[in-house]
């Protein structure tokens, strides 16, 4: 475990690897996860790791540019940290390879699905590979010969698969760019004697690689280079930030290399020549398996169409009020409503916007979009609202990593229709998930709002566990209106007494609530904090939680991703218990519950306990005032605390041990238990 001993903090980047290990555990879980779902977890692990190297490792590498004396004063040791990262990643990659070779491949074979390589092709497979190659690849493959000793060079594109080909004459390298469209990564070689045969497009190219070069091929090794994915855009106030982001996206293709993943079967002397040819350091080299880009396994074909190889479908649970509602405004005006994804459909949000787009009494629609979905009911309804003369304001976060291009593209569509589009601000991101509709009722403007923990994205809502509140509460909606006025540049600071709004009041109110529990505990009274979030990193919040633990406050945390807090340390954090749930769906909700002397307070919204969420982003968390909804959300949180199937204990040693089932205790797989709870309730 890597810690900052002076502040008792885990290193966030090293602890993140512990989170990705939990994803690997899901790929190993033969007992509870069907075969194709385990392949998807391998894909998730691979995709996570790619982004990690492109962003976090890249950032560590950028620290090397800081003057050594300054790094020393700040206790920055990027080289040391990167070496530890590479050592742990190497261990995980070996585990990944073992899962794939010793579990996935044999389990596919048990189900009559044979994933064959070029060396296993029968004559029939060879003929089919020839036909497929001639039809789809022969005239489109990009190849290049490079003689390293003559100072030649080659540019390797970011996140793109290549073959590095060696020859008997040992003087040059050949490079073949492998098409990376995941829809065609796997090729069906037909059915024979009850077995279905599938191969990688990579293996078809291997099979034909000699025909691409005049020299005698000696070895063929797959490789992929990851480059720095951060957009280093100066934060000047002049110019249109969205335009500058859009134009700078190409930097990602040309950024500094952060990892060369290559086939470990490549001889060391050849790997050394390749490293020098690409001008990489030893630390950049990451040996791996025969295949890369495992995120393509999200679309691995199932020729058997066997339902047992996949999770059983869980139909959406109809919301007992919204499902029957013909008039969402009347329904929400009468009582706050709470929705839970992916157990319920995202259509409830879409229907509200659809109704608002055609309602003659609706005058304004305002929404903040962090990751814009492809064309959807929501985007269509917003465009329709503009067509119908509504005043539509859309705040689009142009700096949402890896979604910049799509977000800006959608912003232009809304602008072209006549909507008011506001893009990112320098130095701050807008991460809030808020919607406001203003409607004329009895000659007065009434506001309706939605505040959520997840993005306004119908596709991700099917796999992310999130919560959303529909409300017409006058004080909450008034403060939501003030948040939008800040986004529109009409206010500098939104006065608020109910919402937690970053970067204005969230930190101060959370610190006050934690301190209140500390004071209560010191008086010898019951005190408790229960919180669920994606990541826990802010050192000041962590220091306050340590202080609370030392005062006797009972603290129970659920943190899906990385954490810098060290739980269970005697004299420091023995009253802090922390688990992480990784399961079928991605845990994404943020819920904060404070005992508050028996009069519990609960907040739900978009902010984690991370410095960026507290100080550098526009975030909104709402109190839950409706008594019924409070009980509902609290019950969901308690179910997650009881998980003894997919919850892992987070401890100082980062063991990722599954929460044990105690004698006489019921089996609780929280995501399934929440589904059953909501189904019974609705």
UniProtKB/TrEMBL annotation:
The active site is at 431 (phosphohistidine intermediate). Its EC number is 2.7.4.1. Residues 328-489, 499-671 form the Polyphosphate kinase C-terminal domain. Its cofactor is Mg(2+). Residues 144-300 form the Polyphosphate kinase middle domain. ATP binds at residues 48, 464, 560, 588. Catalyzes the reversible transfer of the terminal phosphate of ATP to form a long-chain polyphosphate (polyP). It comes from Leeuwenhoekiella parthenopeia. HAMAP family: Polyphosphate_kinase. It is an enzyme of class 2 (transferase). Mg(2+) binds at residues 371, 401. One of its GO terms (molecular function) is polyphosphate kinase activity. Pfam families: PP_kinase, PP_kinase_C, PP_kinase_C_1, PP_kinase_N. Belongs to the polyphosphate kinase 1 (PPK1) family. It catalyses: [phosphate](n) + ATP = [phosphate](n+1) + ADP. Residues 11-116 form the Polyphosphate kinase N-terminal domain. This is Polyphosphate kinase.
């Amino acid at each position: 475990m890597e810690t900052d001993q002076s502040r008792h903090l885990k290193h966030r980047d090293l602890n993140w690897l512990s989170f990705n290990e939990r994803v690997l555990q899901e790929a190993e879980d033969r007992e509870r996860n069907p075969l194709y779902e385990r392949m998807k977890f391998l894909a998730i692990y691979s995709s996570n790791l790619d982004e990690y190297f492109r962003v976090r490792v890249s950032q560590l590498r950028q620290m090397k540019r800081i003057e050594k004396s300054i790094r020393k004063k700040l206790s920055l040791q990027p080289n040391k940290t990167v070496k530890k990262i590479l050592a742990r990643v190497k261990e995980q990659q070996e585990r990944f390879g073992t899962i794939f070779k010793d579990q996935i491949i044999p389990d596919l074979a048990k189900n009559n699905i044979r994933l064959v390589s070029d060396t296993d092709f029968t004559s029939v497979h060879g003929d089919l590979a020839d036909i497929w190659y001639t039809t789809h690849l022969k005239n489109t493959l990009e190849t290049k010969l490079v003689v390293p000793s003559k100072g030649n060079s080659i540019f390797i594109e970011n996140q793109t698969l290549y073959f590095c080909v060696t020859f008997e004459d040992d003087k040059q390298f050949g490079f073949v760019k492998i098409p990376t469209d995941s829809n065609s990564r796997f090729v069906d070689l037909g059915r024979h004697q009850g077995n279905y045969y599938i191969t990688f497009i990579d293996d078809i190219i291997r099979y034909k690689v000699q025909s691409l070069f005049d020299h005698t091929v000696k070895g063929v090794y797959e490789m992929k280079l990851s480059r720095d994915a951060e957009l280093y855009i100066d934060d000047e106030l002049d110019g249109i930030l969205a335009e500058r982001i859009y134009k700078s996206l190409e930097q990602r293709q040309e950024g500094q290399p952060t990892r060369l993943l290559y086939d470990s079967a490549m001889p060391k002397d050849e790997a050394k020549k390749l490293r020098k040819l690409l001008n990489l350091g030893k630390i950049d080299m990451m040996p791996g398996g025969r295949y890369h880009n495992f995120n393509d396994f999200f679309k691995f074909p199932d020729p058997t169409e066997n339902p047992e190889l996949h999770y059983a479908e869980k139909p959406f649970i109809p919301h007992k009020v919204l499902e029957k509602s013909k008039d969402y405004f009347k329904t929400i005006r009468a009582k706050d409503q709470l929705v839970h994804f992916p157990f319920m459909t995202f259509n409830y949000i879409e229907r509200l916007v659809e109704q608002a787009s055609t309602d003659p009494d609706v005058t304004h629609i305002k929404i903040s979009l962090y990751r814009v979905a492809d064309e959807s009911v929501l985007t269509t309804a917003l465009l329709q609202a503009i067509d119908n003369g509504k005043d539509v304001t859309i705040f689009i976060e142009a700096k949402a990593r890896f979604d910049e291009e799509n977000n800006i593209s959608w912003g232009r569509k809304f602008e072209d229709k006549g909507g008011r589009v506001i893009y990112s601000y320098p130095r701050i991101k807008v991460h809030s998930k808020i919607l406001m509709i203003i409607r004329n009722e009895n000659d007065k403007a009434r506001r309706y709002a939605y505040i959520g923990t997840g993005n306004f994205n119908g596709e991700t809502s099917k796999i992310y566990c999130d919560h959303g509140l529909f409300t017409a509460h006058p004080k909450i909606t008034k403060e939501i209106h003030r948040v939008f006025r800040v986004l529109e540049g009409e206010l500098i600071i939104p006065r608020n007494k109910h919402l937690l709004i970053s970067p204005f009041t969230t930190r101060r109110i959370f610190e006050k609530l934690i301190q209140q529990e500390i004071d209560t505990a010191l008086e010898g009274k019951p005190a408790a904090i229960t919180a669920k979030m994606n990541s826990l990193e802010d050192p000041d919040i962590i220091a306050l939680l340590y202080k609370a633990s030392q005062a006797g406050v009972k603290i129970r945390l659920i943190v899906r991703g990385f954490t810098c807090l060290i739980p269970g340390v005697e004299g420091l954090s023995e009253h802090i218990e922390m688990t992480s749930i990784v399961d079928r769906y991605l845990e994404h909700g943020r819920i904060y519950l404070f005992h508050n002397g028996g009069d519990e307070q609960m907040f739900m919204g978009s902010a984690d306990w991370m410095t960026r969420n507290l100080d550098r982003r526009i975030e909104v968390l709402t109190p839950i005032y409706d008594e019924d909804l409070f009980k509902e959300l609290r019950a969901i949180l308690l179910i997650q605390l009881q998980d003894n199937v997919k919850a892992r204990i987070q401890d100082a040693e980062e063991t990722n041990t599954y929460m044990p089932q105690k004698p006489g205790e019921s089996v609780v797989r929280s995501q399934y238990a929440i589904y059953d709870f909501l189904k019974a309730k609705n």
